[in-house]
Structures are given as C-alpha cells and as structure tokens.
Specification:
Blueprint lengths: L1 E4 L12 H15 L6 E4 L9 H9 L3 E4 L7 E5 L2 E8 L4 E7 L4 E3 L7 H8 L38 H19 L11 E3 L9 H5 L6 E3 L11 E3 L10 H5 L5 E3 L4 H4 L4 H6 L5 H5 L5
Parallel strand pairs: 1-7, 2-3
Antiparallel strand pairs: 4-5, 5-6, 8-11, 9-10
C-alpha cells in the first residue's frame, strides 16, 4: 500500500482519512490471513485522535511500515503480470525491490469539479486546496461571509463520516434560524453611500474584506456623471473599512456618523443647527 499518491501538479495537502482507512484494511487482511505480508509505504502516518490505536494494532499484527521521501518516491514497474515496487527505506538507508501481488494506492481527495464554477456563481471564497473556505475556522465553521449560504461535509475539507454528520447538523441548525422566522432583522450598523459625494473611485470595492460594495450606473455620482457606489444593507457587516478608506468621505457608518462621534458645541447640539437634511436622513439626531 502506497500513501500520499497525487496526480502531477496537484496541491500537496493531507486528505486526513487515507492513513486510517489504510490501517483498517491492513488489519482486516491480517485478520483474514495472518500469513499475508502487508507493507505500507508512507511519507507520514497521520491517524487523528484515538485512531492512533489502529497504527498500534497494525504493528502488533505484523504490518511492515517503510518511509519514503518526496525526493525518492516509490516506483512501480510491471514485470510479466506482476508488479515490482522499488523504494529506498530511510531507516536502513538502502534500496529495496518488493514483488507485490497487489499495489493499493491511497489517492488524495480532490474537490468536486463544479466547486470552482459554483464559487464564482455564488461569490464564495475557496481555500488554497480548492475547497470552500468557511467564515471562521472555530467561531463560524459552517458559515460563509455571504449571509444565508452554509457549508458542511467534504465540500469544506476531507473529513471522516462522523465529522461530516456533525457538520451537517450544525449547518441545518443555522439554516433553521433563517427559515423559522417570518421576518429577518439586519443589524443597524451598516455603511451608507452618499451618491452626491461619491466619485466612483472603486476604493470601497477594493478594500471591503467581504466584497459588498458595487458600482451602480443608476446612481449618478458627483456632478451627475458616471455611477456611484452602493452597499446592500442586508449584506453589510458594519466593519467600517470602506468608511475609513473612502477618500471623498462619501460613506458613513450608521450610528457612528462623524457628527455623532466628534463632540459638537453644546449650543449647536441643543438646537441641531449644524445637522444638514442629509445627515438627518442618515440617522443623526440632535
């Protein structure tokens, strides 16, 4: 059995389940036929948590483990209907030729072919390995930054069946939080663009970590020319990045307006004379 087999050009990452399944199969072979010689060629054996006992049991039953390096991978050569495996053992520092009746390859688990196109359609991020990337590894493992889209199972990363089941239950619970409500309430801290000040410089589009701002031609910008930025309130995360980066000061964060944060003169605040009609519409109150 040869571990960590990847097609040419495939990214190098651990598929997590391969080593455990290999050890289970090796133990089963030894249980059915104790005289069967099983050799596992590996780069690294990774058996998560209590699955380490499979490695211990395989060693106890006589399974042989030989480590190889990426610089000197095993070579499988057909020979008159049989297979010869050439490998250099790191422990003994010498080459071996193994005559095998069967050669079992543990291939890496690859993302589904439609993953990339689906990610572009839904505007979802992908990990360097090509799987969908969650909003936060520990805090939001079944969420995306895109609200209303949830993640579970091996679309996220290679995982064992019990992990996939737990992940699916969590994703279903998150979806029920949305489906069980007749009305959805979004947060009050959202960014709002003043089209009369927006120059359409795309600064907010480039800097938003969630990719929310867009340029809309139906919203004329400064001087009525071109388009201006628009931020969908139901998608805005209220981080304030676009507000801080906007060079024209055309974006304000509701409930954190400049006129609310900067301490005004007491007399002006009492009469509200310093608030323009537009500032009033954005949520500022005297």
């Amino acid at each position: 059995m040869i571990q960590c087999v990847r097609p040419p050009g495939a990214p190098d990452y651990c598929s997590r389940t391969c080593c455990t399944n290999t050890l289970k199969n090796a133990i089963r072979l030894k249980m059915l036929n104790p005289q069967c010689q099983v050799i596992v060629l590996y780069k690294n054996i990774v058996t998560y948590g209590f699955r380490e006992q499979f490695y211990t049991e395989a060693r106890r039953r006589g399974v042989i483990f030989m480590r190889y390096t990426e610089e000197q991978p095993p070579r499988v050569v057909p020979d008159n209907g049989r297979l010869r495996v050439h490998v250099t053992d790191l422990s003994l520092k010498r080459p071996f030729e193994l005559v095998a009746d069967r050669v079992v390859l543990s291939m890496s688990i690859a993302p589904a072919e439609e993953t990339a196109s689906l990610a572009r359609l839904l505007q979802l991020p992908l990990s360097p390995e090509g799987f969908f990337m969650e909003a936060h590894l520990k805090m939001r493992p079944m969420d995306f930054m895109q609200e209303g889209v949830f993640l579970c199972g091996m679309a996220h990363y290679p995982k064992f069946i019990e992990e996939s089941i737990s992940h699916a239950l969590a994703a279903a619970g998150r979806a029920l939080q949305v489906l069980s409500r007749e009305t959805l309430h979004v947060g009050g801290v959202v960014a709002v663009v003043d089209p009369e000040q927006c120059v359409g410089c795309l600064t907010c589009v480039r800097t938003c970590p969630f990719g929310i701002p867009t340029i809309r031609n139906d919203r004329p910008g400064v001087g009525g020319l071109g388009g201006s930025a628009y931020i969908e309130p139901s998608l805005c995360q209220g981080c304030g990045t676009c507000t801080a980066e906007c060079p024209a000061n055309a974006i304000q964060l509701l409930n954190y307006l400049d006129v609310q944060i900067v301490q005004p003169v007491q007399g002006d605040w009492a009469h509200g004379s310093h608030l323009t009609r537009r500032q009033w519409s954005l949520g500022a109150r005297p």
